Amino acid sequence: MVSTQVSKRAADRAKLADRLGSTTVMICGASLILLTITIGGFLLWKGLDTFTVFGHSVWEFLFSSDWSPVSNLDSTTSGSVGAAIFIAGSLITCLLGLLIAVPFSIGAAVFITEIRPDVGERLFRPAVELFLGIPSVVYGWIGLTILVPFINKLFKAPALGFSVLAAGIVLAVMIFPTITTVSADAIRAVNDDYRMGAYGLGSTRWQVIYRVVLPAARTGILTGIILGLARAFGEALAVAMVLGKMQSFPHSILDSTSSLTTKISSEMAEASPGSEMEAGLWTMGLLLFFISIFFIMLIHMISWKRTKSE
Which of 26, 41, 55, 309 is spaced 20 to 30 A from 109 at the CA atom? Predict the structure, then answer.
């Protein structure tokens, strides 16, 4: 009788703990959803002022290169809020960083999982993951003091080394750990039967990696690339320190330009609350928010297709 009561009490405690745990998880999840919706709503409220209050068009904002908004409330004139230069700067620097980082990241992931998994997992992967904890300002400072002078000395860059190339290299180093770790996990998840079947048909190790393992892991690798690209788009401080902040379209990777994040960080403090400049900067933030949502949806689509194919 006593043991039955003890067992019942233990079961009741387990049920209560299970309810508390599930309720806590639900509250945390709902809070995150509510926070995201709140941030999105606030950005919409502030960012749409460019079009609803100051009367600018979406076409002007996206495709005009004339950025000269009024920064105070006393002016009776209206400026322009063309953000094409900053959109192009963000796209060019991020794509260049991706172009540099992806080959090295995939090569490192293959080394960790296929070439030397013993050394890769014990030494190389922890070393790569350490880069994730380095603050952005450190990357920017190293780029400013070492990379920018080196580019200026090597190429005689027109902006003294401040350039798209410098920003692309810094971004490549910053997104390298993200792409590498996600790609390594995707490669490791490939079924060993695929490898054994390829070896059984007489394939070499490189043929197995190139023709079997990498194609089987392509969705996971693509997810890592998109995650790296999303981080690159949101980076502000490190890019601002090496890009140069020139308000012009770059004609080569040695030219200086500006990006969405660098423009927001450099001019938000100068804009009067409620001014046309502040509204334009909030619209840039809204655009970055939409870009982040797009990347998240893209990752979920890739994951859904991978699950469906499996």
Answer: 309
